[in-house]
Amino acid sequence: MKSLLKEAEEIMENFENTDALDAALIAAAQKIEHYEIASYGCLVTYAKLMEHQEADEILSATLNEEKETDSKLTDIPMEQANVVQ
Ligand SMILES: [Fe+2]
Fold first, then answer.
1. What mean pLDDT comes out for the span 60-70?
2. How is 11-37 classified by DSSP, letter by letter?
3. How far apart are the first and last CA of the chain?
4. What is the extent of the structural domain holding 12?
5. Tens of pLDDT along 3-62?
6. What's 51's DSSP letter?
7. 32-66 core/surface letters (b: 16 or more CB in 10 A; e: else)
8. What pLDDT is stored for residue 16 in this prediction?
9. Does residue 63 lie within any of the structural domains?
10. How far is the CA of 38 from the centre of ligand 1 (A)?
11. Domains in the chain: how many in total?
């Protein structure tokens, strides 16, 4: 996660304030979301295997929130940042 955040910082340092910067930052944010989705997905599996229903419900809710955020980040570039002018 530290490496992903460092990558986002480097993008901010190296890109001019353009649509390319927006697209690069969205991509960096999506990498973070994918990392979170993988992590919460594993934790949900472990909770199910250990039959911890409360943990399963909480972690599943968080996993769904991460997936929704990823979906929103996917929609933004399709609508705005990746538009060819
Ligand atoms: Fe997230």
1. 98
2. HHHHS-SSHHHHHHHHHHHHHHHHHHH
3. 34
4. 2-78
5. 999 999 999 999 887 888 988 999 999 999 999 999 999 999 999 999 999 999 999 999
6. T
7. bbeebbeebeebbeebeeeeeeeebeebbebbeeb
8. 82
9. yes
10. 11
11. 1
- 65 vs 82, residue with greater confidence: 65
> How far apart, in whole angstroms, are the C-alpha atoms of residue 26 and residue 8?
9
Q: State the distance from the centre of ligand 1 to the C-alpha of 53, rounded, in angstroms.
A: 23
- Check which CATH number belongs to the domain holding 9 and give it: 1.20.1260.10
Centre of ligand 1 from the C-alpha of residue 41, in Å: 13
Question: Looking at the domain assignment, is residue 60 inside a domain?
Answer: yes
From the CA of 39, how far away is ligand 1's center (Å)? Answer: 11
- Distance from the CA of 85 to the center of ligand 1, in angstroms? 30
CA–centroid distance, residue 8 to ligand 1 (Å): 14
Tokens coding 25: 């930052």
